[in-house]
Request: fold
Amino acid sequence: MRMRSIRSAEPNADATLSVTDGSAVELRGVTKVYGDGPLAKVVVEDCGFTLEPGRVTVMVGPSGCGKSSIAFLIAGYERPTEGKILLDGKAITGPSSDRLVVFQESALLPWLTTYENIMFGPKARGFNKKEAQQRAEMLLDRVGLRDFRDKYPPQLSGGMQRRAELARALINDPKVMVLDEPFRGLDHMTRGLMQEYYSSLLEEHSRTTLFITTDIDEAIFLADRLLIMTSIPTRVCKLIEVDVPRPRKREDVLVDERANQIKEQALDLLHEEAMKAFAGGSKAAADFVGAYVKRRGGRDGR
Reply:
C-alpha cells in the first residue's frame, strides 16, 4: 500500500494528514440479528466478502434487504451477532476515523459554512492547522466549491451538498469509504453529474470503497466489482467483476457490449431475489414466483 504523508510544521504536532490507497476489509460469516426472542429479526446471515485495497466494490440488492446494516457493521456503529469483520487482519470493534460513511441524508452541520464543515474533522482530531487549511483549499477547488466556501448548507443545492460531504470525508483520508446511496434523492441530471464527478475522483486516486446503490446503471458505471445481494436475511448471491476499461463515460458505458452483458446478468439475479422477497408475504405470491422460476428455467434450457 502506498502512502504519501503531509508532514506537520509544528514540532509538537503528533497528527499528520496522509494519502493512502486504502486497506482490505474482510467479512467472515457475519450474521446480524436485531431484537430478542420471538421478536428477533435476522437481517444479515452468514455473509462473507472482501473489499480489496484501492478498488470500488458496489453492493446492489433488493430494497430493504440489509445493505445499510452491512454499512453500519463495517463502520463499527453496530457489532455482528456472529462472525468477524477485519480491517487489514485486525478485528473492527467500533467506529474509527479510518472508516468514514457518507449517508443517504445530508450530515453537514447547518450552522457551519462549507469551508468550516470540511475543516471540522481535522480540527476535531488535532491535525496541524496550516496543513489542514492547505488541503481544505485544494479540496474546495477539486469539488468546484471555492465560490461557495462561505455559504451555509441550506444555501447549497443538493449536488453541492453531496460534493461538500465528499470533501469533508476525503480531507480525513480514511482507509475505507462507505457510501450508502449517497446520490439518492437527487434529480436525474444532478445524479448523473455526481456519478461522473465521483468516478473522476476515483480514477485520480484509488481508495478502498464500498458504494451501496439500488441503481444498476450507477453500479456498473462506478464499480470494479459488483456484489449482488440476496433478499433479507442478506448474504452475497454473486460477485461479478466489472471488466469495463477506465476511464469511463456514462454515455459510453450505457452502450458498451460488455457492460450490458453484466447488466443483464445482474438484473436476472436481482429480479429473482426481489421476487423471493415479494413472495414472503403470501402463498399466491409464492406460487407466482414458482411459476416465474419455472418459466425462466424453460427459457434458459432452450
User: Anything to note?
Assistant: The chain has one domain: 3-301. Confidence is low (pLDDT under 50) at residues 1-19. The two ends are 48 Å apart (CA to CA).
